[in-house]
Amino acid sequence: MLTAYFGGGIISAVSFACAAAVLLYFAVKLRAVSLCAAGALCGILLMGGYLHFYCEPILEYSDKTVLGELIVSEVTEFSGESEEMIAQMRLGGRTAKVRLICEERLEEGQRATAVVEFGAHDSQKLLYNLANGILLSGEVEELQTVSVGGGARFNVFKTLRSKLSGAVRENVAGDSGDLAMAMLFGMDERLSPSVSEKLRICGASHYTAVSGAHFSIFAAVILGMISDERRRLKTAISLLFAPAAVMLFGAGASVLRASVMFFIYSLGPLFMRKSETLNTLCVAVTLISLVSPGTVLDAGFAMSVLGIFGAGVVGTRLSKKLCELLPKKIKKLSPIVTAFSVSVSAVVCTSPVSAALFKGVSLSGTLVSVLLMPLMAVAMLFAVFLGITGLSLLSVPIGLSMKLSSAIIGFFGGIRGLWLTLDFFGAWALAALFALLLTFAAFGSMKTLKLSTSCMAVLALFSLSMSAYTRENRSEIRFVGNYQSGAAVVINKNEAAVLISGGGGGLAESISRCLRESGAVKIACIAAFDADYSGALAIRELSKTVSIGTVYSNAIAKELLQDLNVEPVPEKSIMSVSGVTIATASVSESEIDADIAVYHGRITSVPQSSAKTAVYFSSSEKQLPANGHNAQRDRDFTVQLSKGDKIITIEKLT
Questions:
Q1: Cβ partners under 8 Å of residue 595, min gap 6
Q2: What pLDDT digit, counting tens, does each position of 391-442 carry?
Q3: From the centroid of its chain, how far is CA 485?
Q4: What distance in Å separates the CA atoms of residue 55 and residue 413, rounded to the nearest whole number?
């Protein structure tokens, strides 16, 4: 399926022909490998049909205005006077998910008749959109009617989840409560950008996404209340738990994968069979791919599948081999070896996706995962009983577990050097090769284990060398932003300088991500000439995850950031980096005397700019001048600088 999506027509046709030849050859010889060839054929046909018969007819509505009925399925973001939401519409007789911006506030479940203007679909963002089932983005030009939708689905389970999460929120306050909501229920919207960044750096961000771990712990608590003598009741509840958990936690790709696997595991005893992890995982992936082909492009789904493969298949086999190699005197260390083997295998097997999408991996991910898992299990156990009984005393162990978790995340997440940047060419391929070698080591003989280990050591040294070389030779300007503000991040080796255009609200997370992906561990200076209150708070969030030198801003920032070195400067100032001038401006301004202009504000008409390079941030494909770039859509857009030490100055204009 991935070959059919990324390869295009010719590569897909060649792959299909090869798979057909392999299938015919091995089918005659009755070899089991013919099933693999049959799977390749089915995958190419399924994805090809999905793209041709479903995606292409919907994409024909690009750049068109339609009048239709929509149902709001999710409200994703509020920004100023508008909101961003995901809705369902009928386009060409097909039900399609669309991302819309609307100036009027709508709630989840509401039904509306509206005039919608779709933008041109961006092929570079199609992968991300299709992974979420979304093909088109647009703006609601006119709302004609709004009514309540067809009833709230799964009200019972939403009420149960609300009761459990509400009990935790009421009894566990502060950062510990926010972390508990994220780790136990996947509600990470209250996490501050600094905490989210630390979770990523220490390799624990997957704990804030509902996955198989949540299923296992939650099911253990529920089924643990039933005695082993009542096996039929246990089996019946197990079978009902899988769909109920989807309704409780939401129908995300990773949740569906965990639900299908749990259902298959529960079916095993009914047929006097023991469920095997690899087979169960393959069946789950196959069923989900048949129902929703676009799911195979979802990063969360890929991380979930590869994580289970690494921990449940590779890790368990590898730990057995390593425990056999332990001398008799230290056989008692087998549980520790098993725990680390499973955790390391999960990190290694997910590293290709992490390198491709997040531009690196955490060197502390294994240790942090081992430390956090028991704390999460304790918190989940008491959260269930807290929701059932309402006894506030049960919140004490939840709070303690989350405080310990917060301390672990804060310590390891505060060491930015623990994030290994892998943004050089072919990094994901090296990570995939490393994962394959680990798999061979787990499935092969002891001789294969030793050979694979030697090869992995060579690959690890090569990857570290490439990462260090790329970081030391990096000299460029990257751009990040949202619909109201933007930023130019000047990166030189492991240091950065940041110029913020507009108020700066909501940029902390984007700037932190940019610094992490590029390997920068400190900021020499931040220039935020027209920062507002929200922008000052964003700078403070940045200071919690990365050291900041001087902040050039206004009186508002100086008053709110008294603990930082803030130097007030006029609003109409520009940053100069070794002779390259960078200015900030509103989208309505056209005369800019600078090499690069970073614009802020919403684009309502075709903008103009006299700068050599004009950078805008827009969610839709608005028409831009010839020298304009939409950095919101093209996140790979960078400006290369000459190598060497950068001389950064702030020119105060009158």
A1: 580, 581, 582, 611, 612, 613
A2: 888 888 888 999 999 999 999 999 998 999 998 889 999 999 999 999 999 9
A3: 22
A4: 40
